[in-house]
Amino acid sequence: MRTIKSWRWMVRKRHMLIDGGACGVKMKQLTFRGIVCIVMLFIVYRTTYYQYLQTEIDEKLNPFYASKDIAVASNSLGNLPRGIVQARSDLELKPLWSTSSSSSKVNVSSSHNLLAIPAGIKQKSNVDAIVRKFLSENFTIILFHYDGNVDGWWDVEWSKKAIHIVAENQTKWWFAKRFLHPAVVSIYDYIFLWDEDLGVEKFHPGRYLKIVESEGLEISQPALDPNSTGIHHRITIRLRTNKLHRRVWEARGSTKCSDDSEEPPCTGFVEGMAPVFSRSAWLCAWHLIQNDLVHGWGMDMKLGYCAQGDRTEKVGVVDSEYIVHQGIQTLGGASAPKASNPEDSNKEHTLDVRTVIRKEATSELQIFKQRWERAVREDQNWVDPFRRKGRRNQRRRKQRRHI
Ligand SMILES: *[C@@H]1O[C@H](CO)[C@@H](O)[C@H](O)[C@H]1NC(C)=O
Ligand SMILES: *[C@@H]1O[C@H](CO)[C@@H](O)[C@H](O)[C@H]1NC(C)=O
Ligand SMILES: *[C@@H]1O[C@H](CO)[C@@H](O)[C@H](O)[C@H]1NC(C)=O
Ligand SMILES: *[C@@H]1O[C@H](CO)[C@@H](O)[C@H](O)[C@H]1NC(C)=O
Fold first, then answer.
1. Closest ligand 4 atom, CA of 226?
2. What is the pTM of this model?
3. Which domain of life is it from (predicted)?
């Protein structure tokens, strides 16, 4: 009996050695895959954990959801000594062993910011340009490969510095909900959740950060160059003479915006293509993202509720650092479709997909609105912080009309 056991053990050991050899050869690749693996495992763990929580909690979401959630969590952790519990993580790559150079590189006190961006191989050169700008400001980069193509990225110089997540045909909001949990990104001061089709020639991440910090913007976006395609809301257009703006005036069109306007999209509004969140605003926004509504339509109108205060003050569009929206229809962003391209060889199929996606996004928008209304109805304690506050505020606002 014993001999059999030890023989088995030998076989197993041999397998391990063989695996180990292959491991040595492909160490670098495996390191990366290992990281992706770990992230995936974490997600699976979180998902099952939350599914468990959901069955525990009443079918209907109720006002006690948050406190119950915490209560369940602390019950499950009851047998751990408190000091060992780590409720947070981050997206920083770690060396397998510490060397003097790597340990000096890790500067705990320095600031951390995150760029998260969907990346299709067709947009490689544009994503490359964006990432280079952000890397020079020491951003952490996470790419969401929605077309399944990761191998096409290995030749870009920064590829191994980035975290790559792969899930085919998923949207930016799907990725964000699953991979940017507030507990995982809480070390980052600002989170840039951008589409890939943005031109950053006139954009400097460092200067942008200085502006949002000094102006106290919890949610912001860079303004869009007026010659951008796919401009949906006037407030996002760049004003040449400003550093930033927080509202727009518009007499024509379906949405009229005046001094009296207190609501998006006249003020307190950024669009979904290039939002930037502070840590607290992201904590809120992540909870606002609906798990099953992957196109994120309609959420921009409610983001102001995550502004950590008055949305007419804490949400803004930065003019001095601006971007060009190229309006390329991609799955990652899934904004409104652009006009059809006659040179597109795949035109019919492409149009078909676009139509279907648009239809889906529109129906999701309806669901989102209904959920919001229902939540408002059912939450007896909820008071709309932005209910019109009367003339006093408007007079005050007129005095700083230039912003
Ligand atoms: C970390 O960065 C701060 C300033 O950002 C600097 O004062 C400090 O010396 C750095 N520490 C290390 C170990 O590099
Ligand atoms: C980025 O990090 C490097 C190394 O820690 C540091 O020398 C450099 O000043 C940082 N750059 C910025 C813009 O913070
Ligand atoms: C993703 O979408 C493309 C185009 O619609 C399709 O050809 C492909 O099969 C899809 N992949 C998956 C895994 O659903
Ligand atoms: C318009 O956008 C293109 C890039 O799409 C840019 O090269 C050009 O300079 C822009 N023109 C103006 C007037 O800003």
1. 14
2. 0.76
3. Eukaryota
